[in-house]
Specification:
The protein is mainly beta and 82 residues long. The protein is 6% helix and 44% strand. It has one helix at residues 33-37; strands at residues 2-7, 17-22, 25-31, 43-48, 59-65, 72-75.
Length: 82
């Protein structure tokens, strides 16, 4: 499981949007942190299942408007794999 943590530090909704890919698959399209969180300086998380291949887990951030941003990336073991 990949958990992405976001906080928009300063921009209003619509001023920063981007796509996120995990292992080559788009998991967020046109993501706007400020819009999703309800404004700047508010946190929002998104979680996605992901399986590590021989080269690990590939995460890509692709800007649409402004720069892409992420505050933290958390990798959790699969259920029952601790």
């Amino acid at each position: 499981m990949v958990v992405l943590h976001f906080v928009e530090p300063s921009l209003a909704a619509g001023k920063r949007t981007f796509d996120v890919e995990i292992n080559g698959k788009t998991v967020l399209s046109g993501f706007d942190v400020a819009s999703a969180a309800g404004g700047a300086l508010k946190a929002v998380d998104r979680a996605f299942p992901a399986v590590a291949g021989k080269d690990g887990i590939a995460i890509a951030f692709k800007p649409r408007v402004g720069d892409a941003i992420v505050s933290a990336i958390e990798i959790l073991p699969a259920a029952g794999k601790r």
